[in-house]
Amino acid sequence: MTVAEPPEGYKAIPEDEQKKAQQFFARGQTVAGTGNFDYAIEMYLQGLAIDPEAVAAHQTLRDISMKRKASGGKKLGMMDAFKLRSAKDDKQGLLNSEKLLAYDPGDVGHMMNLIESAVKGGFWDTVIWMGNLALRANVDSPKPDFNVYIKLKNAYIRIGRWDKANEAMKYAVAMRPDDSDLVREARDIAANNAMKEGGYDKGGSFRDSVKDMAGQKELMIQDTDVRTMDVLSRQIKVAEDEWNADPREMGKLMKLVDLLAKTEQAEHENRAIELLEAAYEQTRQYRFRDAGQRIIMAQLSRMERAKRQELSQSPNDEAKKKDYQEFVRERAERELQIFQEAAENYPTDMSKKYELGRRMFALGRYDEAIPIFQQARNDPKYKVASGVALGQCFLEAGFVDEAVETLKDLIEHYEIKNDTKYTEMAYWYGRALEKKGDIQAALKAFSGVAQANFNYRDVQARIKRLRSGNGNGPTPPSD
């Protein structure tokens, strides 16, 4: 069953994460077929760490655990089980409970702990899946636990599933038919369920519901876009009339330009660029040309996304690949010209310097980019980004010692040791140390990156290559 609209708190897992998790599930299924159940369990748990809402994987893992038990598999040892009693967050709590359950598939306590973590974590399809198993296990028990029914009822109410809460309460009332408060609560839940009837769709899931809503939202956006263009067209007409009535009023010109650019349609954008260029020629105020250049860069960005999307659909098409690469270079060259001019006109604006350096780097002009990033890093806002880029430039230009020292200094003075910026600078510090030949220091830096983010860039391949002693072997491709 599914609700028409999941209540606030449901955690939808992105499709790319779902696909990533499938790789672990596929590996787990393969090794399970060889009878290596413990390793299969670990593979499924790693996949579920990425996609905790993969109900089919939960069920397959349970099937594997049942086969393991039938083959004589034992529970986890007391110390191993004790370590899994605590968790840093709700998702880890779910995974810990599922691991305990995988080694002892009949334990209803583990089932209820899993449900509690899944409710708090927003993994509600998992709640439904495990709730069905826990309910049946309790019903079939020689001594059903009244509290299990109550906990299930509370969990289902938390996720808006009054039909399931109603089902659990029926069993609770059957155990204590003389409890007037319990009977009254059961009636209230039944009434809520009756009001919600029609909000459930048999055979679906919260995940399906989210997909349905995404499709409906897309249709609404498309409809809104049409209405928005109608509104913008009227606003443009009014703004143009106002500006024509007072063409020296630059505020009215900018209002018209903003509306033209807002359409994201080349015809209107080009008109805005022409108006801004004319204003620049008339006043010699660079702010008008700068505004026009920003529109040009927005157009280039849209073109790049379109070409990238086209290439992703035909990744082996060499002609499309070459066309995309040529466009990326041409875009960088055009934007280099834009930021060179902007930096000359706004010499104290370090954002212009930083963006200029980025384009130089993209075009392989490392020697020219180095002094640009050195200037940009004097602005606290660009200190870290420019520092990392400077280290990369030194590295690519062959100044390895300078790259090491630049990145080392950046790391030592960066206070937050567990964010994405720190991970990036540590990775490039490792790259510089590797190129210098300081393998142990490089390994230490890469190991820190892997511990923070195991899938960061190519850090796994670099660690394996260096640890194999093949430091002179093939180097992973540069970014």
What can you tell me about this protein's structure?
This protein has 479 residues and is an all-alpha fold. The protein is 76% helix and 0% strand. The chain is built from 22 helices and no strands. The protein has helices at 15-32, 37-50, 55-70, 78-83, 90-103, 108-121, 124-140, 146-158, 162-175, 180-196, 206-245, 250-262, 266-283, 286-313, 318-345, 350-362, 366-376, 383-397, 400-412, 420-436, 439-452, 459-467. The two termini are 46 Å apart.
Which term fits the overall shape? Answer: extended
Described by its quaternary structure, the protein is single chain
The string of secondary-structure elements, in order, is HHHHHHHHHHHHHHHHHHHHHH
Mean pLDDT across residues: 87
* Helical residue percent band: over 70%
Largest sheet: none
CATH class of the domain at 15-198: Mainly Alpha
Query: What does the radius of gyration come to?
Result: 30 Å
Strand content: under 5%
Number of helices: 22
CATH superfamily of the domain at 15-198: Tetratricopeptide repeat domain
